[in-house]
Amino acid sequence: VTVMTVSFAYRFLLAGVGVGVGVGVGVGVLSSPSLLVEPQSLTPSTIGTRTRVENTDINGTSVGIERNACRPFDVVVVGAGIVGLATAREILRRYPTKTVCVVEKEDSVAKHQSGHNSGVIHAGMYYEPGTTMAKCCVRGADLMYAYCEEKAIPYQRCGKLIVAADKEEHEEWIEMLHTRGIENGVKDLSVVYGEDIHTIEPNVRGYSALYSPNSGVTDYAAVCRALAQDIQSSGRGEVKVCFEVKEFKEVKKACLDAKKRPCSQSLKSSKQLVEVVGCEPGQVGPRIGVCGEVVITCAGFHADRVSRLGGGSNSPRVIPFRGTYYQMKPEHANICSMNVYPVPSGSGIGVHFTPSVSQQRGEGIIIGPSMCIAFKREGYKSSDFSLADAVDAFTQVGLFKYVVNNFSTAMSEIYRDISKDAFIKEAQKLIPSVTTTMTEPSFSGVMVQVMTENASAASDFLFERNCMDGKVLHVRSAPSPACTGSLAIAEWIVNVAADDFSW
């Protein structure tokens, strides 16, 4: 009872904490041997012989796994979200002899952040010029449009309006975002005013807006499924689901495959391999392993914990945030035709209108999200609670400083999360004609963010390098625009891997 009472007290005080748009540089470095940096410009596994257990591949097909034997891959990637899958695909594309195995805790790809988001293809005006985040967003948008076209994945290059309500917001945000976007190389940006906004989007009202015709939307879950298919169809890659990582071990190179043949020529130079040991989620066994010459982790919700298992540092830790969406009823789905955003605030990029092309949720207009701290990393409902996840979040100094500095914003987010009227009132700042009766509940999503001790969100992607004697590379933080930039982020990760692993 005491634990639950305290937890709900924390929820009241902290649930409204959102993540602002980063405007600084990255989070710096950690001491050797693990180095936390921003990058510079730059077949089923058969593991384990006494008994045969069954597992399933990405398509749900039963795959036999032999225990007590280890056939190694060149690379093991942990995490089948969009960054992990894109990284595996980029390795296979760039190195035609390498083999890759992706291991994933859930029963399908894109189960969490990659499959529960607004689906926006960002153009790149939010991010500090010169950061990896800015570079990957701009290049990643071009790559994403091309990939969707190639794979016949639904997308729309529908555009975006970032709307300032008054002259003060215009001077503080629109002018800055316009300048920043130009520096980042965003295409065709322009500032529009009053009646010109009405001409572009008849239902939108505002003092001014930044118009980005190159912004768009797609279905990132469908992108992930296509990436997984690319990996499997290469003949050199596998995606193994229902595999929760429990341990990383160094094993001798003398390991043989199930038929007792020597390991492949490409691996003979390595004295030791890394065995990624895991089992079915929620179970204690049987444990199986996947061996790799090197390992790259892209573990999303559990990036900090998986990194620690793989020789990484205790910090930074992630904080989960839950966002709730509404959607326009079908008869009102013509209320807008493009992304309509407010200027950024202390709780992030704010409640916005977004066209949806999701194959799972259908076409229409979604509105959201709210932004509240989650008490569970997979906590899609406000009642979801995990003591371990809550302790991880609430013991971070940066979070408490952020709450103190943004208390009114936190309380507003709480109110919008529990009150549909308050939520829609926020949306009416962009489109005054929208009403509660025109909308219905939609989905929820959870994102994780790294907070620095000075109470700001990490403003760039973070990698931890040279773990486990230089055989493991961890992606510690890859928040939005990770979906937009995923194919470009994969290029950066493989550049870093090539340097670290001497490829």
Which blocks of ≥5 consecutive residues have pLDDT under 50? 1-69, 255-270
The count of strands amounts to: 23
Largest sheet: 9 strands, mixed
**Helicity level, as a percent range?**
25-40%
Radius of gyration, rounded? 23 Å
DSSP strand content? 25-35%
Average pLDDT, to the nearest integer? 85
Number of helices: 12
Briefly note the structural class of the backbone.
alpha+beta
Alpha carbon gap, first and last residue: 55 Å
Shape: globular
Q: What this model shows, in words?
A:
With 503 residues, the protein is of the alpha+beta class. It contains twelve helices and 23 strands. The protein has helices at 2-14, 82-94, 132-151, 167-184, 194-200, 220-233, 303-309, 387-394, 397-405, 407-418, 420-427, 482-500, and strands at 35-37, 52-56, 62-66, 73-78, 100-103, 120-121, 155-156, 160-164, 190-193, 208-212, 216-218, 237-240, 244-252, 272-279, 288-297, 318-328, 339-342, 352-358, 362-368, 372-373, 439-450, 462-467, 472-477. Strands 1, 4, 5, 12, 13, 14, 15, 22 and 23 form a nine-stranded mixed β-sheet that branches. Strands 16, 18, 19, 20 and 21 form a five-stranded antiparallel β-sheet that branches. Strand 2 and strand 3 form a beta hairpin. Helix 10 (407-418) crosses helix 11 (420-427). The termini are far apart.
